[in-house]
């Protein structure tokens, strides 16, 4: 079988109602290599790039309450910068390229439920409506 745990998906398949950054982009801590005195940032086991995380709001009206905000991990050499906020709104619309989903069993609270881990290679501004062209890219962490 050619399934290795993670699935490549399109941003719009996961976030058909859009997605909004609701927190800071933060380094992911490597708990195996870190000590109390010396934190070490996690690296992607496939690419060797640093791993960052960002909280994202899913505005899907049918999403469960506990699934409205998800974490997306981004592998990049530098800290990604979210797209600009919409004037007058606190949220930043975002799209992810190179998105993968890894299902896993979450047994939190004694009740088992399938949960999902999201990873991406690029965080960018959404495509401009009607133009068919992407908006200018936010800093995805890639060197210029």
UniProtKB/TrEMBL annotation:
Residues 124-144 are annotated as: Disordered. It comes from the Bacteria. This is Plasmid replication, integration and excision activator. It comes from Pseudonocardia abyssalis.
């Amino acid at each position: 079988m050619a399934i290795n745990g993670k699935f490549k998906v399109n941003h719009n398949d996961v976030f058909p109602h859009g997605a909004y950054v609701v927190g800071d982009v933060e380094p992911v801590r490597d708990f195996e290599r870190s000590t109390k005195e010396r934190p070490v940032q996690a690296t992607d086991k496939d690419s060797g790039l640093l791993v960052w995380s960002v909280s994202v709001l899913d505005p899907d009206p049918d999403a469960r309450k506990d699934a409205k905000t998800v974490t997306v991990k981004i592998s990049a050499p530098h800290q990604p910068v979210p797209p600009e906020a919409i004037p007058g709104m606190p949220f930043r619309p975002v799209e992810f390229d190179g998105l993968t989903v890894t299902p896993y069993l979450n047994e939190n609270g004694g009740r088992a439920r399938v949960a999902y881990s999201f990873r991406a290679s690029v965080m960018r501004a959404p495509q401009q409506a009607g133009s068919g062209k992407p908006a200018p890219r936010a800093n995805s962490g890639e060197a210029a």
